[in-house]
Amino acid sequence: MNYCKLFLKPKKEESLLRFHPWVFSGAIETIEGNPREGDLVEIYGTNNRFLAVGHYQIGSIAVRILSFRQEKIDAGFWTNKLKAAYTLRKALGLAGRVDNNTFRLVHGEGDNLPGLIIDMYAHTAVMQAHSVGMHYARHELVEALKEAMGDELKNVYYKSETTLPYKAELNSENGYLYGGDVEDVAIENGLKFYVDWQKGQKTGFFVDQRENRSLLEYYAKGRSVLNMFCYTGGFSFYAMRGGAEVVHSVDSSAKAIALTNKNVELNYPGDSRHTAYAEDAFKYLDKMGENYDLIVLDPPAFAKHKNVLRNALQGYRKLNAIAFEKIRPGGILFTFSCSQVVNKENFRLAVFSAAAQSKRNVRILHQLTQPADHPVNIYHPEGEYLKGLVLYVE
Ligand code: SAH
Q: Which of 120, 127, 257, 338 is the catalytic position?
């Protein structure tokens, strides 16, 4: 099959020559043929010079690049890419461990597969397409995944209902594309979790906080911990293993709180140190006392688009200000932002304003980010989305 060709406007090839994996719609001069959304297309620059091949989509990002070489995107291509992703996770010491079977196998642009996310929970891959092209490729991807992972793979759950562009009218349904007889307990650094990929948020678990949870464990001994925006309780069990005296988990979702309680039971049955509350964060923070000396703030992305950035930064400032006001002297605050459009400097500025407002003496102990199984493609700095600060509050 021949791919349709897209020709860029003069001077618009710069970013592709620097291997940035997106073509914006405004950069396109002409399109030869009539590509459907999700089709593979070839990109050409000045003097008909071949630049790249990728998935075409209607919207501001018109093409997501799969290769900068003129090659066919076929079964062999997908297998090679997935093998490379798996090899990296093995090299990182994440795959094939007894005490850890939870990791991100494919992180979109970070694995040169824009539009595709795959998280592994034991022998189950949860696959998410964020582009129409990856949706069309889903069956080929499953075959490639089987080839790349062999016996390690027993199930593939496809979960793209909410991540695909709504206007594409793909009628995508969540469900198993392979297997389906599933154990739903995953292990992260020796701790057990129920993962509900069918009804839970994202792929069912926030795999990106693994290392930051470990760091929290290190600081937890003897402390009173508040895990705000706990989701299924990730930070809480690490705090308990680290020897916290009290752990309170809060999330506005009752379902998340139910899973948090189940997960505590799984790891620390009958342990009275832990209590979970289904409540709004701001309400809880307003009325809580000043007893905590280790607080985690891991809110959902406050800004999903650039035009709401100001409001988002206000949100981060307000949230952190309450924590600074109420944390006990000598307390430690773990504060995060996972909004892609909020950069490191902006986030730090929002937290800085909050600290100043509280007039407390605050020092930065650690600057955190996403772990190595969420790699950042050096040509796509936008891929660095998770930011965290660990602060010592006198
Ligand atoms: N820290 C978690 C991930 C947090 S995701 C982990 O390690 O797994 C963000 C969470 O914030 C979601 O579970 C969502 O239900 C919750 N949330 C969103 N709005 C909230 C609000 N206003 N108050 C409390 N929780 C909220």
A: 338
E strand or H helix at 334: strand 331-337
Do residues 201 and 207 lie in contact, with contact meaning Cβ atoms separated by under 8 Å? no
Q: What is the CATH architecture of 4-67? A: Roll (2.30)
Write down the CATH number for the domain with range 75-188.
Answer: 3.30.750.80
Q: What is the CATH number of domain 207-393?
A: 3.40.50.150
Pocket test for ligand 1, best of 201, 214, 251, 336 (most atoms within 8 A of CB): 251
Q: Please return the burial class of 292, using the count of CB atoms within 10 Å of its CB with bins 0-12, 13-18 and 19+.
A: buried
pTM: 0.95
pLDDT digits (tens, 9 = 90+) for 297-346: 999 988 777 778 889 999 999 999 999 999 999 999 999 999 988 999 99
Centre of ligand 1 to C-alpha 20, Å, is 32
**What is the per-residue pLDDT across 77-115, written as a single tens digit (0 to 9) for each?**
999 999 999 999 999 999 988 899 999 999 999 999 999
Return d(Cα 58, Cα 151) in angstroms, integer. Answer: 38
Cβ 114 vs Cβ 133: under 8 Å: no
